[in-house]
Write a structure and sequence with these properties.
single chain; alpha+beta; PH-domain like; two-stranded antiparallel ribbon; 14 strands; 27% strand; globular; disordered N terminus; hSac2; TPRG1-like
Length: 302
């Protein structure tokens, strides 16, 4: 893991760089498993097989009439929150939804990409990250030829705060399915899904990692749909859809494995993604209030 104190200058301001370029640790997940091979053919076969069975892979999202230009989603592998609808008024409160804000943010962040290390930018998304303390935050995701970036960007003052670079060849597995709390948890059911990208050796977090809410070397990242996807006009918008990112990520990692890990294959696991949270009123209030998203809150912006 990189030293969290490492900084880069982006658009005249300093951004913290959290680089993950070697394997880390976490417990192996049990569930229906696919071995994604080293060619596009293997990827396509695996996706075809996975879509034919299993509760996590067979859900179709409700259709919509309007989507962001040229980017329409075709399928859904993770569930949406039932009855969770964002009205136009609610959608417009997100600063990222204002005219050209997302495109501007992508352009402002492109300078973090190092062509000699990351290759070229393939696509970008705006998703929700669920951290190890069960807190949801708005994140820009970049996928390049050899890396995936998880970016914290302030849409209000248009500044990049920090980013995490994860080299694709160190990713061991991707879990896709519904979020679940332990049986003894009193947290309200999430009733939706996402993906969990891991680069680990099957070991647990250390005590310091688990109980530090600001820990930056957690060897996984958990992502779900952005709330804007629930606006009826954006139901088919790929930009806010974690399933679209999942499909692109698997395809690109497959190619990277061919080059950097010949003879090995990426493990894709279908099954519940457990969130180790038992009783956290902080997470409930934080998430229900949308404090991890940059919004106009009745004239107060944060």
């Amino acid at each position: 893991m990189a030293d969290p104190s490492q900084k880069s200058t982006v658009n005249g301001s300093e951004a913290v760089t959290l680089e993950d370029d070697k394997p880390a640790d976490v417990k192996e997940f049990e569930g229906a498993t696919l071995q994604i091979g080293q060619t596009d053919q293997h990827v396509n076969e695996a996706e075809t097989n996975s879509s034919s069975g299993g509760s996590g892979f067979s859900r179709n999202r409700p259709g919509s009439v309007i989507g962001r230009t040229s980017v329409r989603s075709t399928s859904s592998k993770t569930s949406l929150r039932p009855g969770f609808i964002k009205t136009d008024v609610s959608a417009r409160s997100f600063y990222c939804y204002k005219e050209s804000q997302f495109d501007k943010a992508v352009n402002n962040c492109k300078s973090i990409i190092k062509p000699e290390l990351d290759g070229e930018l393939k696509s970008s998304w705006l998703l929700t990250e669920v951290d190890h303390w069960d807190l949801e935050r708005e994140k820009i995701i970049f996928l390049t030829d050899y890396s995936v970036f998880v970016i914290k960007y302030n849409f209000i003052n248009e500044k990049l705060y920090e980013f995490r670079r994860i080299m694709l060849h160190i990713i061991n597995s991707i879990n896709v399915g519904d979020f679940k709390y332990p049986n003894s948890s009193v947290m309200p059911d999430r009733e939706h899904g996402g993906i969990k990208i891991r680069w680990n050796q099957g070991q647990e977090l250390t005590f310091g990692q688990k109980w530090n809410p600001w820990c930056t070397d957690i060897p996984w990242v958990t992502l779900s749909h952005h709330p804007l996807l629930y606006n009826p006009k954006e139901n088919e918008t790929a930009t806010y859809n974690v399933d679209e990112f999942f499909e692109s990520l698997v395809a690109v990692i497959s190619k990277v494995y061919t080059e950097k890990r010949p003879g090995e294959s990426l493990t894709v696991v279908e099954g519940p993604i457990f969130i180790e949270s038992y009783a956290s009123p902080v997470a409930v209030v934080f998430n229900q209030s949308g404090l991890g998203f940059f919004r106009d809150r009745n004239g107060v912006s944060f």
